[in-house]
Amino acid sequence: MGNLSTTTATTPTTAKVIIAQLCRSKDFQVRAKLCSHTVQRYATAIKAGQELPPLQVALVDGVPCLVDGYHRAEALEYLGYVEAEAVITDTTRHEAQWMAATANLTHGLPLKTRELRQVFRVYIRTGRHKKGRGRLKSYREIAQDLGRPHTTIRLWMEKDFKKLFNEYGDANRRAKGDDGVRPPPPPGDARAAIDHLHAVREAFQETVCAEARETIRVYLKALSDDLLADWKNRMADF
After folding, report:
1. Of 16, 38, 118, 166, which has fewest CB within 10 angstroms of its CB?
2. Contact at 8 Å (CB) between 126 and 97?
3. What is the pLDDT of residue 32?
4. pLDDT at 8
């Protein structure tokens, strides 16, 4: 692509890119899949003369990688466009991955929980959890960066980055901070039930309909009351 420079300059430049030549790797896309309705909506807007924001492209080792604008690129190709306006940044692979993650985090279609978890993984892999001099951000600081509860961040850390999770435990115990207080590990036969409870929470967080959310709350409250009642009266059957 003649319009793209392979210099090490980090200042973004604006240029035309050939859409078909853009790398659209899953490494630079946290969404599970594109939304066909959004593609059609963008295509309609373009046909009506509306000017959409330029694509965001990261030049990684000379390869133009699309990091933001997947739906727009799809809509342009659907309409027969060969080129598109793009903001191009010459950067590293890790930085490009984080550019893609933050682009989806800050605008566009709201990310689903599993997609937010992918943003978290990129956050850790690109070293955003470090503050310098080997210090680690707390779970609460990471939660503030990503807009998720710190309890969710701790759970994801335990499941996705076990070694780092153990490092956090050691660091927090030394610091005696609020993140150092962790519940004891559950017995093995309780793990499946606890995982299901976390899955219910994530499903609730993905639910948009207010009526559906209220129904989930009612059912969960009834189930909780039943379980607690059973525990309090655990000798009733004997």
Report:
1. 166
2. yes
3. 65
4. 41
